[in-house]
Amino acid sequence: MKAPSKSKTTELRELLKDARWGIWLFVGLNLLVLIFFLLDGIYNEFVFVLLFIQVLLLVVWFLPVFCFQVFYKKLRVKFAIYKALASYKEAVNHFSW
Length: 97
Known about the structure:
Oligomer: single chain
Number of domains: 1
Strand content: under 5%
Structural class: mainly alpha
Largest sheet: none
Number of helices: 3
């Protein structure tokens, strides 16, 4: 049995780091939605827009990336979830804030 190479280990660590970044971004976004929901209710435009963005991201971004990783590249589900979350960081980096 061959030990994983150093570059594979580094790549996996970077993938996990990027996936955690994606998770924290969603946690922050959900907390922001919760705060505005508690202050003004569901009919606040900001709450509606953030909920719409979350659903759109799930359907348009994460689900296709996840399905591509699982069905086409034949990766394990856990690894495919990490890849989908890490790809979100790459997409956000293309925006100019």
